[in-house]
Write a structure and sequence with these properties.
The chain is mainly alpha-helical. It has a domain of 28 residues. It contains 2 helices and no strands. The relative contact order is 0.07. This is Cytochrome C oxidase assembly protein. Keywords: Membrane, Transmembrane, Transmembrane helix.
């Protein structure tokens, strides 16, 4: 029996960790996208009014 043989639980943990990592990555990308959309000025006239205040 080889020392490097993985037990079945290690395979399940790895797949769970990969799934959790992907979910976390999607969440981070979503938060980044929402932040960029929130701070991006769509209408330059709005920016001019804000500066003039």
């Amino acid at each position: 029996m080889a020392i490097t043989k993985l037990h079945e639980i290690h395979t399940r943990r790895r797949s769970r960790n990969v799934g959790l990592g992907l979910a976390l990555g999607v969440f981070v990308i979503l938060m980044l996208g929402l932040t960029v959309a929130k701070v991006t000025v769509i209408d330059p006239a709005i920016m001019q009014r804000e500066i003039a205040k």
